[in-house]
Amino acid sequence: MKQTILGAGGAIGIELAKALVAYTNDIRLVSRNPKKVNLTDTLLQADLSDRDQVFTAVADSEIVYLTVGLPYLTKVWQQLWPPLINNVIDACLHHNAKLVYFDTVYAIGGNNVNHITESSPISPTSKKGEVRAEVAKHILDSIEKRNLKAIIARAADFFSGVKEKSVMMNLVYDNLATDKKALWYCDAKVVHSMSYAPDLAKGVAILGNTSDAYNQIWNLPTDPQKITGEDWIDLFATELNTRPKYQVVPGWEIKALGLFYPFMKETYEMRYQYDRDYFFDSSKFNNYFRYTPTTNAMAVKQTVAQLARTSVSA
């Protein structure tokens, strides 16, 4: 049973390839520069912005996982996400493949982030959220009107030993590891859920290989502990054997720094995820599959240990 990962080179794609071996040894990894994760993986180099290459990538697949991570730029998302999801849906329908879409919660905005469940209203308050809402709507409409078999699998902000594009790893881990102050956006004393990439990948693999899970939205497994930014900094500081020193970057400063740093400019509209409680509830998944997510403390311990091993072997 061929299972294909579109966008296989990122943190989730890599962990998903590891998790899928529990279900199949016929895994196809698709990206611009794919690399094997398992010995039996097959690789396909493709530009997923090209419709024909998407159709080639999906061919012969029973399940297709979309884990693409586009550059964190609003204009890029607006330009590339709508045609990408259209092409992926068309290809899945043409080749009779099921789709599992790895999603964020960007489409949920304002105070609706105080407690995020599968029934939280689509309420984007950012341009990136509007794009994600459009993508999710296209999938749900295709389920209803075109008989697409699909899953929307949502994650909160997440972290792992792959540091690229991770706010937690770049602003907290990297700074504490070099004896600098950790940085946190807006308010370090409000709740901020974070997911652990290996748990997310296991959740995606479970959902993809569970027939009853299709045509639904699922929040992926995440520790239900209500933990603050300050608590996260304490956890990383403990594992790094350093003091939990940190500095809060207020919203106005994010905007000001955006004049000089493009990443900060792109982050400013997402400040609503940091200036109030942001709690991600995966109880639907945890209860249905009797799954116990890795605790936040253990996730941090494993991440720091993984990076220490990587540093030694480098």
UniProtKB/TrEMBL annotation:
Domain NAD-dependent epimerase/dehydratase: 5-219
Domain of life: Bacteria
SUPFAM superfamilies tied to this protein: NAD(P)-binding Rossmann-fold domains (SSF51735)
Pfam family, one: Epimerase
UniProt protein name: SDR family oxidoreductase
Species whose genome carries this gene: Nibrella saemangeumensis
